[in-house]
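Posted in: Structural Biology > Protein-Ligand Complexes

Title: Requesting predicted complex, TZP in pocket

I'd be grateful if someone could produce the 3D structure tokens for the following input. Sequence and ligand are given below.
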Amino acid sequence: MKEELELYFIMGSQNCQDKDPEEILEQALEAGITMFQLREKGEGAATGQEKRQLAERLQARCRAHSIPFIVNDDVDLAIAIGADGVHIGQTDEAMQQVKKRCPEHFIIGVSAQDTEEAKKAIQDGAHYIGVGPIAATRTKIDAKFPIGLTGLREIRKQVGDFPMVAIGGINQKNAEAVRQAGADGISFISVLTKATDIQKAVNELKMEKVHT
Ligand code: TZP
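-- Reply #1 --
Done. Output follows.
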């Protein structure tokens, strides 16, 4: 699990402005992302059949690169298309329900903002936790106050070596500090959806201490 969390790209069509989500994902896959989550949510997001078709197109791209394809929140869609897993937030469908409905092999990720939420997710049977927001972000309008590297370190201390990915405001400048603070991996949206050179952006996110 930890290796898959290393470079976890998240995206929905609403994050892509006038660019093609499939094209962005393909470039990100070629550049070396290790996991992908479709987060089709918020203003301008596709719904219904359109969302399903988008999900299937993106899933096919991930399959071609043998990279896990995770669906945010929409458990029905994840099951219907045979995704590799789901990611749920604190306000999404209760974990017990999700576990009951999903196939055995599903990867289940849960968002957590503090130690309490993190511990609960682990107890409930999550396979990884997504912790944040680490820094300020404009991507999620209802994002909570950033927990910073201090908050991240504290959660790491409390969860032992449980698989943990950090999210929110992560870019080339802070990626290495986030890993140093205890994250097994980083997840990110805008640093790739807004990049002019996706390959370069992924390389910089991978690199150690590029800007220090
Ligand atoms: N959850 C917490 S912050 C966030 C999500 C989905 C948005 C992250 O986007 P970005 O552009 O990488 O800051």
